Amino acid sequence: MTSERSPLISNTQKLGDDPYARFSSRQKGFILAQISWCGLLPFFVSGTFVPSIPQIAKDIDADPATVGVAVGVSIAAASIGGFCGASYTGLFGRRKIFLATLPFVIVGSIGVALAKNAAQLLFWRFIQSMGASPGRVLGSVVIGDVYKVEERGMAYGIFIAVSLLGCAIAPPLDGTIAYYFSWRVTQCLIGFMGLIAFIFMNLFFPETGNTTQSSKESKYLISRLFRSLWLLRSPVLFLSAFSSATALLTDYALLVPFSYTIAARYNITDEALIGACFIPIGVGNIVAAPLIGRLSDKIITRNRKKLGRWYPEDRLRLALIGSLTLVPLSVVISGLVTTYIEGRIGLLLNLLCLFINGFGVTMSMSPAAAYNVDVMDSSQSADSVAATWALRSFVVSIAISWIIPSVNKLGVAITNIGIGIIAWLGAAMYYILIRYGDELRALVDVGYAEAS
Which among 304, 323, 321 has a CA at the least distance from the CA of 149? Predict the structure, then answer.
């Protein structure tokens, strides 16, 4: 098979005994920068929507709950796009999947910007999110292609930190643009970002995967999807995906109803200020990502030297701490503070909870993302990412649809306590993984990496 060529990075070396020696440190850094930009897109797609929900609802003459459904639709589309992209990357390569999906971001963003009613909005949001999501998923796969096990935590940390800039930048940017211009201008900006990504990936990105599948296998595209999903019969992959889903749900539980909970409680009305309130959660993500990545690498290296063998679940020890403490407590305390504490003190405490939640969610999800690649044989790393991404996104997209109705009916305190209990359930799953990892992997062999 003729390899893709790039003016800056050559990919002419064949896979050998050390596939991680194909690229120099400089080349790996440039690859990491490109996938991080693509990883930024999905967070911009989601982050530039929530602060503008009241304005969007007024502009297209729809009620806020209907517009809020677009968030769930976006997550469902991201699930489909990320799952399909990661499933087919083993057949067609990482580069071709990027180039095939990025145009959907461009077209979808233009469609959202021109939407006149709720139906059009939901349709184009689906296209936009579906095109952006492979950037988040394939980034994990590419890191597994390029970096060794003991280097992946740091690489994941950088990738996630850059990607999560969207959580910090997108909401205030969207709020400011919406306040002074229109929410539609922000959607055009996302389309432009997608165009930049497409140009750079087309000109400079090399093929990092080993696409050795036969052309005969490529005829069975549907069966390829089921092959990826079939990996979820593995207890470790199922528990890892479900645990990270419970952590991510707390993030959406704070952000999706924000305009009708925290903002309404403390009389924050304009979109620019609402968007600015989202900054702490993004800062928490950014601060945690490189720190947690580096620490998880150190735990893997230390325990390998100490025990004389590699135990993949060691990477999840930090995830357990985050899921047990920071993630559930931040959402529960925020609900109680919003209900019972007025004034500036209440708002400041909520902003602190947002920072802690951002830190905790990254602390929970970043090690799990690396673990899903570590634990699988390299030939199935893309399929494991696809399967776990699909399950996580499906769980969150279903759960998110009842957050605003629950807040309206039960109140923010009861709703957040319920979300916190779900997060503690995720922490219990992480504990089971760490405690019984060997036994769980032995139950169903789906092609794990050798624990040597």
Answer: 304
